[in-house]
Amino acid sequence: MRIAPADPQAWTHERLAASFERGDLRTWPYDERYAARAADPRTLLADARSVVCIAVAYATPAEPPRPGRGRVSNYAWSDDYHRRMRALLTALAGELQTLGAATAIACDTAPVAERAFAERAGLGWIGKHTNLIAPGLGSFVFLGEVVTSLALEPDAPLKKTCGACTRCVTACPTGALRGDYTIDATRCISDLTQRTDPIPRELRPLIGTWVWGCDLCQDVCPPTRRAPRTAEAFAPLDAQTRSPDLTALLRLRSGEFKRRYARTALGWRGAALLRRNAAVALGNRLDRADVPALAAATAGDPHPQVRGHAAWALGRIGSPQALAALQARARVEPDALVSDEIRAAVLSISKTPRVR
Ligand code: B12
Ligand code: SF4
Ligand code: SF4
Question: What is the pTM of this model?
Fold first, then answer.
C-alpha cells in the first residue's frame, strides 16, 4: 500500500490523450473527456486529497500449452478479482471513514488511470509491456484505489525503469507493443479475445490458442519471472477453466457457461464469445481431427460470429472434408457476413491446399 497525492496529473492526461488520438484504444469508448477525468481523482470524490493505492499479487503456477487445450490468462482463471479487490478496498475505506474521511473506491471499471496513480505512489514502475511492475511481486498484480478527503503524507515514486530490456516487445506475437511504453491495444490478444465485433482476419493466426486474455509479455518479463507464483486466493477454479478442452468449448452453451464461468473475470461476455474464440484457436491448431466439430459449428451454431469464425478455421485446416462442409453451408447460410467468411475460407483452400 502506498499513497499518491490526489492532484490532477497533467502528464497522465497527456499520455492518455495521445494514446486515444493515435487510436490505440479505439475498441474502447475512451475520449479526451475520459483522459481528463481519469487523470483527476476529483472525478470520483470532489474533495479528494489523497489516493491510497494497493497492488495485490495474483500469480499462480501456469502450465505449458497442451495439445487440444486453449489458454486462459492467469488473471481470469480464478474467482473474479473484482469481488476480492472490492472487499479489500471497502475494508480499507471503512478504516479511513472512522477518522472522519470521505472515501470512494475504484478497481478496473472506474475512470481512474490506475497504473499512473500506482506509479506515482511508488508501488512500482510502468514497464514496456505497459503493466505496473511492483518490486518483489512483478507485474502479475491487480491495482485498486481508495480516494479520500484525508491529507495523507504521499510516498515517493520509485526511480526505476526497464533500461535496455525489450523482451516483452520481442515476445508479443501481434506487434502490439512499440517499445516506448505504449501499446496498440487493438492488436493485443487480450483485447481481441474480448471484443464483441468480429476478430480481424489478418490477426486471427497470431492469437495461437489463447481463448481469453494473454500473458506472453509478462511471462518473459525478468522481474515477473523472479516473483513467486503463490497467490492461493487466485488459484484456478479447475483444470477446464485454466486450459479448456477446445472442442468442448466450441459447444459451450449458456447453462454450462454460467455454472463454470459466472464466478470468474471472464463471466461477463457470454458463452458465444468463448465459442468464437475456441473456433479461432482450433483454426490455429491445424488438426484435421477437429473438422467435424468445426463443421457442426459452421452449420448449426446459433451465433453468426461463431459460424463465421468456425468457417475461417475450416479454411485454415483446408482438408477435403473441410471444403465439403464449407460448400454445403454456403448453399443455405442466411447471414451476409458469414457467407463472406465462407467465401474467403473456400478461396484460401483453393490458394493454399493444406492436407495433413
Ligand atoms: C482498457 C484496459 C485494457 C485494454 C488496454 C490495455 C492498455 N495497456 O491500455 C486491454 C483489453 C488490452 C487490457 C489488457 C490487459 N489488462 Co487491462 N485494463 C484496462 C483498463 C480498464 C484501462 C487502461 C487504460 O486506461 N488504458 C489506456 C492507456 C493509455 O492507459 P494506461 O494503461 O494507464 O497507460 C499507461 C502507459 O501506457 C503509460 N505510458 C503511456 N505513454 C507513456 C510514455 C512513457 C515515456 C512512459 C514511461 C509511460 C507511458 O502511462 C500511461 C498512463 O498511466 C485498466 C483499469 C484502469 N481503470 O486503469 C485495466 C488494467 C490496466 N488491466 C489490467 C490487466 C491485469 C490486464 C491484462 C494483464 C489482462 C490479461 N492478461 O489479458 C492485459 C495486459 C495487456 C497489456 N500489455 O497491457 C490491470 C493491470 C495491472 C498492472 N499490473 O498494471 C488493470 C490496472 C486492471 C486492474 N485494476 O488491475 N486492458
Ligand atoms: S498481452 Fe499478449 S498480445 Fe497483448 S501486448 Fe502482451 S504479449 Fe502482446
Ligand atoms: S520484459 Fe523487460 S522491457 Fe518488458 S516490461 Fe519487463 S523489464 Fe520492462
Answer: 0.97
